[in-house]
Amino acid sequence: MTYDQLCNLYAQSVTLKILRARSAPMMLSFFHYTFKEKNHTTIPNVELVTRLSDYLGVTGYRATDDEIDATSLLENDDEKARKYIEQWSNKGFLRKYPDDDGVDIHELSSDMEKVMHWVSTLQKREFVGTESRFKDIFSKLKELIDQSNKDPEQRIQELEKKKYEIEQEIKAITITGKVQVFDDTQIKERFYDVNRMSRELLSDFKEVEQNFEQITQEIYRKQSERDIAKGALLAYTLDSFEALRQKDQGKSFYSFWQFLMDENKQEEMRELIEKLYLLLEDRNIEYKNDRFLKKLKQFLHASGKKVIDANKKLSDKLSRVLGENNLTDRRKAMELINDIRQLAFQSLDNQPGEEFFIEIESDPELDLLDRWDMADEKKPNLEVEFPDGMGGTEFDDNDLNALFNHFNIDRALLEDRISAQLENKKQVSLKELVDIYGAEKGLTELITYFSIASQSAHHIILETPDPVMLGSRTINMPMVLFTNSQN
User: Fold this and answer.
1) Can you tell me the distance from the alpha carbon of 197 to that of 68, in angstroms, rounded to the nearest whole number?
2) Closest CA to 262 of 479, 27, 19, 455
3) DSSP letters of 323-359?
4) Residue 211 in contact with residue 249, Cβ under 8 Å?
5) Are 190 and 182 in contact (CB under 8 A)?
6) Is 92 left (phi over 0), alpha (psi -120 to 50) or beta?
7) Are 469 and 438 in contact (CB under 8 A)?
8) DSSP conformation class of 75
């Protein structure tokens, strides 16, 4: 890095501003205690202010006039805590946004996560594992080379080698009756590595979300620069969504999200974590009661859902832009109608002369069924002849029901079906519901399922295609997952 680049970095980097802040020791210790030790990713504003007020009282920390307003130095801890939280949020140390109920909540920013991770590496660790990390590096290098080799012969040779190693291990276990397992040190080392990587993954999500927001802002900027027709704007909208999915970070995230939403993978991960903690307890391995991994799936889902929600906001924004174009078209149509109406009123005082009319040879015959009673001489209705098998004068209730109730969808019935499937499952997809119950009302019923999912906070709509079969037709639908709000 050059001198100018470093000067610019020191002037603009939020991460460095955190480290230079006078309140950094108090701020970092408070965030570590509140978020990290308690395993919280988000905290409501009111609760965070209360916790900081209590923390200020316990530590006896005294603010200086260059941290908060000098007039606040004589205020009580509650007011100081509120101003600290507000200041940290404005500077980008904390993120503040409303939840689904409109309540302000906070989470650590990506810059704050970087600082806390870096500071934690400065402390002397009582246990530093090297064996598992080297093996992890070695296995990733081997996987990278093996999975990038397009030569079929070499791939087969590599698989045969793995097969031979597995067979030899099976033979050794069969003969000796002994299984080679990790000792306590190896288990402890790998547990710490998994825990560390899991926390880093959650920290990375904040940066992923921030990068997605930057992409969204870039799309907004491009749209504001261009005065384009509705058709062109729609094409640009679809291209924007495709750009989000095709970027490297977008591909990686959606692959992860699809993996996380797989019910079998969720159950497998839950069982693995449960077995890990049972192993630690059986071996009496000290892990400081760190049960972060037990909530890992919940944390990953919450963090990943915010990225999904950010994309939904983009979709809503683009939909509103298209709606604004429709509104403009309607406004133009109304203006034309008003112009015609004004011309019509103007012509009342200046009626056209005979030269504007034409004569016909005979009086016109009006045969409008709904105007029959207005005629001077009432004529019987003309007989209408229908082709064979069509029409007729006899109607029953089935005919009327088919006419008026063709698109009547019982939304409550569909919601009951969803609830019934979620009694013994954590989630069920729209495709599974159609396979189980069918879709008697066709595409209209699928749209109703889609509407139920879009209006609920705990149901999920993904961009991933999930085709649904309706008879012999295949309907390309986004993946819709109905989840149990209690999980």
Assistant:
1) 36
2) 479
3) HHHHHHHHHHHHHHHHHHHHHHHHTTSS---GGG---
4) yes
5) yes
6) left
7) no
8) S
Is residue 262 within 8 Å of 270, Cβ to Cβ?
no
- In angstroms, the CA 464 to CA 362 distance is 67
In the predicted model, what is the mean pLDDT of the chain? Answer: 75
At 148 the pLDDT is 78
Tell which CATH classification among 1.10.287, 3.30.390, 1.20.140, 1.10.10 matches the domain 3-120.
Answer: 1.10.10
CA atoms within 13 A on the CB side of 106: 25
| Cα 471 from Cα 439, distance rounded (Å) | 9
Tell me the C-alpha distance between 418 and 484, whole Å. 10
Report in angstroms the alpha-carbon separations of 256 from 140, 205, 252, 300.
Answer: 18, 11, 6, 10
> Domain map of the chain by residue range?
3-120, 133-180, 184-344, 411-483
- Residue 199, C-beta contacts closer than 8 angstroms, at least 6 positions apart: 36, 292
Give the start-end residues of each E strand in 18-176: 43-44, 94-98, 104-108
Round to whole Å and give the CA distance between 459 and 52.
34
Question: Which long-range contacts link 281-287 to residues 24+ away (Cβ below 8 Å)?
Answer: 283/184, 283/187, 285/184, 285/187, 285/188, 285/191, 286/188, 287/188, 287/191
Interval 236-254: pLDDT, tens: 556 666 666 666 766 777 7
Question: Quick check: helix, strand or coil at residue 108?
Answer: strand
CA-based torsion, 290, 292, 293, 295: positive or negative: positive
CA gap 82, 72 in Å, rounded: 11
Q: Where are the beta strands (DSSP E) in 175-324?
A: none
* DSSP state string for 400-465: HHHHHSTT---HHHHHHHHHHHHTS-SEEEHHHHHHHH--TTTHHHHHHHHHHHHT-SS-EEEEEE
Average pLDDT over residues 114-138: 72
pLDDT at 394 over 80: no
Residue 47 per-residue DSSP state: H
Q: What is the pLDDT of residues 280-295, one digit of tens each?
A: 888 888 877 777 788 7
- Does this model's pTM top 0.70? no
Cα–Cα distance for residue pair 222/317, rounded to 1 Å: 13
Measured CA to CA in angstroms, residue 274 lies from 89, 267, 269, 279, 471 at distances of 37, 11, 9, 9, 43
